[in-house]
Amino acid sequence: MHTQNNILALHSTVAKHSTLAIDIDIAKTVGFDALEIYSGKLEAYLLAGHSELELKTLLSKTHVTGIGYLRDIERQGAERDDLLKEAERLFQLANLAGAKGVQVLTGPINVQAVIDFKMHGTSAHYSGLLGHDEAEQLALTASNLALLADLAKQYDVLLYLEALSWTPLNTLAHQLQLIDRTERNNVKMVIDYWHCFTSGVKPEDIARMDRDVIYGVHVCDSLPFAGGIPNEEILRDIPTGSGVLNLAEWTAAVKATGYDGWWSCELFCKKQQQQNSYEVAKDLKALLVSLVGR
Known about the structure:
This protein is α/β, with parallel strands linked by helices. 46% of the residues lie in helices and 14% in strands. The protein contains 13 helices and eight strands. Strands 1-2-3-4-5-6-7-8 form an eight-stranded parallel β-barrel, surrounded by six helices. Helix 1 packs across helix 13, helix 4 packs across helix 6 and helix 6 crosses helix 7. The chain is globular, with a radius of gyration of 18 Å. The model has no long low-confidence stretch (mean pLDDT 96).
């Protein structure tokens, strides 16, 4: 049982191109308290021929805050069957990794679908509930979320929701409404500074939140955003702390709620992902310590 406050978690994206074993070593060497793991690294370890027992042993001394991610949670019809299959696999992996949470994302995850839809009213890519009215989007997404929460419960994991800022249900109000509508106690959310910023959420909106709905925090940065449809690949390609976000202000807003859970350093800077991951992680940890006040 981990009762420590303000846990600092190394996110898999910091060393995007490394293996799970290296991620664990970076976290240990640099002094992170925990790991937030991209599920692809868990699958790669197993696909290479390692057993589930070996995976459990590898992670036995590592606190895993969560694994990500289940995409496009609003999927309908045959695509919903795929969603449930993918969900079950992620819950199994979370269970093996000793993770208490699985990250779930609103869709469509592919920003091109949103761009196409805005321009032409249609897209060759998966488009989710684009074109539906908001009431329908909320109802169908919440219904799926409740179903996923019930499935997650069987594996003793909770869901932490992240609304992608280019998707229809992208605001804090949307997310709180979705969580409220599911009426399940194992659905919470992650505060991601970049998604908040690019969907128009302000630090003061965060400060007014009930801390019990927050499962984790993604400390990240952004290049200037002038409005329109935010493109993550472009806008997040910046070292954390070098962008336009006032990280201290965002962090203070989260802390104003009384939240003292885990903080993770998600990273999308391509240059840094090609650098020495130990050094990058060391700098990110120092930044998190200065912000969170450990």
